[in-house]
Amino acid sequence: MKALVGVSGTVVGMLFVIMLFCITCTEVPPAHVGVWYEAPVLFGDGGVDTTQIVRPGLRWHFRSTDLLTFVSVEWEHREEFDDAPTSDNFPVDLNVALEFDVDDDRAWEIPKNHGNWYGRKVKSPFRAFVMDFIVKYKMMEITVGRENLNKLEVEALAWINKYLIEKNIPIVCTRVTAGKAMPPTEVLAERARTAAQSQRKNTEKARKLAEDSRKEAETARAKADRAYMKEMKFTSAEYLKSLELGILRDKADNITWIHGAPFIPNRSIQ
Question: Cα torsion at 190, 191, 197, 202 (round to 10°)?
Fold first, then answer.
């Protein structure tokens, strides 16, 4: 009897050790979902278990089974376009961000049917779509203002969702955002030089207008002075004396001046 108990204990211990080697624990992180992938050991086909979606938390399972996890909230892919050609053969730099969401109930289809769905099936066609869009416009039409970039966002969103449906990929693109398109460095430098030249021209034009205005005012004043001298029959000396009187009137209350006589104020002027 004791021998039987000893053998049973040994068997149980061996089974426990075997279980430790055969069982493991995997966590489905928050904001993720998971699906079971069963690898056949001796018999059966294995593959993805489509009967259940695994929610966040710890899960114990045999090592022959993998728990594949996927982001279940929106996430972003960003594509960088360097030297994308425009219709006038000027390259531009542009980045486009895409936000995606997964259909939780169909998440199991991704590892079974699509794998790296973005890299294998979406990336290249999407980049080709954007390049085809850019080449329809001139550089200035892409890099100045956002009208055409907004148009790119709308058309790209419609295109990519239609494409995902056609490929039966359980992913939805929720937003496409095009960043500011930048022309080549040489073009930026030329723009800066042009802006500086334009500013200098505007400054010179404003200065010339001011000088012309001052000259016109001086000419008009000279004509008025000559007309006044002629009307009053003043000599040049008398007219200058008259101007001096006008200045002194601004500083004095009483000034006595006799036409043709030396100018003598009747009180001191400070």
Answer: 170
Q: To which H or E segment does residue 26 belong?
A: strand 23-28
**Segment 70-80, tens digit of pLDDT:** 766 667 899 99
Which DSSP state fits 95? E
Q: In whole angstroms, give the CA distance from residue 71 to residue 239.
A: 95
Token look-up 């993998």 returns 66
Nearest to 97 by CA among 126, 132, 138: 126
Residue with tokens 């040049």: 236
CA 55 → CA 63, 104, 107, 164, distances in Å? Answer: 19, 10, 11, 25
User: How much is the pTM?
Assistant: 0.55
Give me the pLDDT at residue 137, please: 95
Q: Using CA atoms, how far apart are residues 270 and 267, in angstroms rounded to an integer?
A: 10
